[in-house]
Amino acid sequence: xxxxxxxxxxxxxxxxxxxxxxxxxxxxxxxxxxxxxxxxxxxxxxxxxxxxxxxxxxxxxxxxxxxxxxxxxxxxxxxxxxxxxxxxxxxxxxxxxxxxxxxxxxxxxxxxxxxxxxxxxxxxxxxxxxxxxxxxxxxxxxxxxxxxxxxxxxxxxxxxxxxxxxxxxxxxxxxxxxxxxxxxxxxxxxxxxxxxxxxxxxxxxxxxxxxxxxxxxxxxxxxxxxxxxxxxxxxxxxxxxxxxxxxxxxxxxxxxxxxxxxxxxxxxxxxxxxxxxxxxxxxxxxxxxxxxxxxxxxxxxxxxxxxxxxxxxxxxxxxxxxxxxxxxxxxxxxxxxxxxxxxxxxxxxxxxxxxxxxxxxxxxxxxxxxxxxxxxxxxxxxxxxxxxxxxxxxxxxxxxxxxxxxxxxxxxxxxxxxxxxxxxxxxxxxxxxxxxxxxxxxxxx
Length: 445
What we know:
CATH superfamily of the largest domain: Endonuclease/exonuclease/phosphatase
CATH class of the largest domain: Alpha Beta
Number of strands: 21
CATH architecture of the largest domain: 4-Layer Sandwich
Shape: globular
Number of domains: 2
């Protein structure tokens, strides 16, 4: 439960705020009666806190010495003091008293199950507890309902494109992966795009994002750009330069366990039968505020539409099999989310008459998911974009998105949630120059 009237002492430190951190000196403030609190989640001017009992790192102790030295400047501590006063007066605080499962090594059987959460009823209606004295101050139900939801997105970020050995553009390529210099020469533009991608993710403020077409170098770049807010876990495909990843807010979730599996399945690109092996990453994370455990899977399926009817769902079914075989040790998974680029749109199979009622249910590859009670939002906005001709890239670089960026009129990026209906979440003001896909998101309760 949470204390609606909680107010940290002025000597206490509400972490993740520079003004607060400035006045907390490791090894000294605690002896004077000060406590540290981590911000679990923040909605508007209301912050949900939990006590932080972690020991100080060597870096934190070294910074404390620098802070002590700066106190003698007088002007710096006065400025920081004013900032702390403004922060405290402009914010309300709730104190979480819930215990969480501690993060353990992969599949550690000593993990203890989380205690039942008396406040969680998995709805967004006001939450009441008959044991609470009605004369005492109550927690705002709206704050609790927001805390019980998480936002999840999926984003194919387009792996860096290549040139031929002679320096020419390859015949099979994704034009969004190139730029045009002042001399009219084309160049590979991932150095520009990764900044756009990171900004889109930060602007979205999503709790969890699954990523596809991530190379090791781009993963490291994103970790540097997003590391203050997100942890990123990565799995590379076999015999491919890219892979899949899951990013989640490091101050909101605790990682419990993780697995990476591979799937080998047939392909039929340009009517040439073959096979491909791809990885999918599965990670269990626990919401610190609610104790709920979410299993998040990031996957990138090959295009199944040209395959035989008996082969269309092989990749998806293998992923589903691995998810079900991934047994939690000492805890229960509350929600399972499969997200990624599935290369299957709302229009059914190639060569067939377009359905009168398009939707994910028209995809042969998804039928086993629906049998297992997975649900998907009903929004059918295109998640794929591009240019009609590569010469349009110059205008695209200049920001003329509306003039040259074309919708492919197909949604192939989906987020499936087992046992509950996800709600489509609109993400306005995305910069679509980051990839040939857009970041797509849902709300999960």
